[in-house]
């Protein structure tokens, strides 16, 4: 390493140093920081989370060496062999046609799984956590001529990382700035009297920006009604103003906006609506019939996929942060080593808790995300009856069953409402019911305008009939089960708690804990209606709280076969 090495290094410093300084300058400008307050290139920034699998100690990155991944307590030992070349092929999946969320199917629940979107993970860690702050790991290249090429490369990587972090930070600032309009109690957001006076005027001339700022003002008024009301307009007038602006800005019809505002406080409602516009993280479920999560992770990393274990509650899930290959077309995908499956879609199966050698019905099964998960949990023993009423959707169900090596399944195509006369005495039944899809608006924005009260009533009626049938298929005397799980990707009470409450009155079942370690309790009071208090054992999941699709899961234990008497059946 002589003069050439030095000048090469100096060149790199000039290159990356300039980039970093430029980015810092932009951030300082955005933050209006100057003098001593201004950020320096060494200030540790928060950065986008990198994969656990990716965050390996540098010294262990030699081919053949083993690295113990620093977390995850699944049954795998999570030891990775480091031989991670980025060789990959770009293959178009023959299954895409049957699994694409944007297939010709029109119902949103038909697109719930295999969503194919990429994560915009908000998980972050500090640069300090990575030893990048306080000069740790830094090398003065100009002074230290003994720096070898390897360290130089590391330095280069650190500088690139810094630069990325700064750009990421800049992006975050921009995002925060645009969100600031909705921030309550912000010093810049103090309401002026004339703003309040003009609030209710000139509706048709208002631009999007005007409406956004009016949302912000009205939110402040409603959140501190006693002190901020104008003395002229009632709370409900402010509320309808807010609803009309939210419906305009976010593109919803009046019906759905009113429903959401009944369910949440105004501030939470906006949070829910904003989160519903954002894509959820891309998640895959390891097919444990064919591989282990550790092996799958290793194989995908070697193809340039940046992944992490999903959450503690899942032994099979992996979050995909980014990928150089189409995740629905890797050799592992084609070989059935995983299913692209929303994390919310794991939950009903966890609640169902299938046991080996049981007889289980999946009443509305296509395209088979949950069926194949049930079979995997049963280690291909017993029988899984996989039913779906739509013949064209059976194709994707069968294709997935084959691809994932599921061998304990009988596929049928009946209206679930009639199944009880064909199939009885089952240990467990899953009803992942057809619904309005109000929990999965990020997959299908058309839900915002296409749902009306009549549709929801119609859904609710079918859901009640399906659930009664599901209960009738189940055997109260099952030695191992007698369990029914009801789930939807809707957040509406009418499709969830109202359905369960109805069935509690017509069959001998009780609500039991889903045994899912997170989620919000089910709703027991709504619009003057009182549901059975046990409904708080049901679980609700929301995009703005759990960073997953809006979802509802309720687990029932069958106490006695037969129907309750003295109840009128009106769906
Ligand atoms: C939410 S999707 C099911 C998703 C599936 N459980 C999975 O995890 O892949 C609802 C399914 O219900 C089916 N369906 C609609 N009406 C039905 C009925 N009356 N009986 C049985 N299935 C029905 C639809 O064809 C659709 O595939």
From TrEMBL:
Residues the record lists as binding S-adenosyl-L-methionine: 388, 415, 432
Protein name according to UniProt: SAM-dependent MTase RsmB/NOP-type domain-containing protein
Classification via Pfam families: Methyltr_RsmB-F
GO cellular component: nucleolus
A Gene Ontology BP annotation from the UniProt entry: maturation of LSU-rRNA
Domain SAM-dependent MTase RsmB/NOP-type: 272-559
Residue spans of biased composition, Acidic residues class: 72-82, 102-117, 142-160
Keyword Flavoprotein: no
Family according to the record: Belongs to the class I-like SAM-binding methyltransferase superfamily. RsmB/NOP family.
GO molecular function, one term: RNA binding
Keywords, ordered alphabetically: Methyltransferase, Nucleus, Ribosome biogenesis, RNA-binding, S-adenosyl-L-methionine, Transferase
PANTHER family: 28S RRNA (CYTOSINE(4447)-C(5))-METHYLTRANSFERASE-RELATED (PTHR22807:SF30), NOP2 YEAST -RELATED NOL1/NOP2/FMU SUN DOMAIN-CONTAINING (PTHR22807)
Major location category of this protein: nucleus
Compartments (UniProt record): Nucleus, Nucleolus
Active site: 489 (nucleophile)
